[in-house]
């Protein structure tokens, strides 16, 4: 499922970019940020990512994005060190609508796609457990502002992720019919980044 979703998103983006390149503005974005689950006492984790967008007009962009969030903990007892590491990688399609076309551009956006997750544990730097990569469908509304400096933009946004479970409780979604919209993990965050090739004036 994860390979199919990645291939589908990539193929759609390629077709879009090729068909739009003659008249649209291509852009590359890089981001870093913080995220925190809605689970009580959860840790704040760090993440970052890249995105490619086509500005079909100065106010509307469509694209693809990849992010990575990482978390870990260390425990030392009787001279033994136990470490846990987790990774969450959303690979999504993106839509953004900019309310203004000028030096300050507030916008509303959304992501949807596959969320890949994995986990491993180490004892004294030796792996004692490593999970298989799981895939789940997820979506994330975003609200932010871009400060435009010519063709480069400084971006600040808030994002809230919804990661849906699988109805058959398997490690992979498999198909749209297997998405369990009633079983949802949620986490919010703040991203800061740069956009190179900003559409508009």
UniProtKB/TrEMBL annotation:
The UniProt keyword set, sorted, is: Signal
User: What's the protein here called?
Assistant: Uncharacterized protein
InterPro entries hit by this protein: OMP/PagP_B-barrel
In which organism is this protein found? Dyadobacter psychrotolerans
Keyword match Signal: yes
Source domain of life:
Bacteria
The stretch of residues making up the signal peptide is 1-24
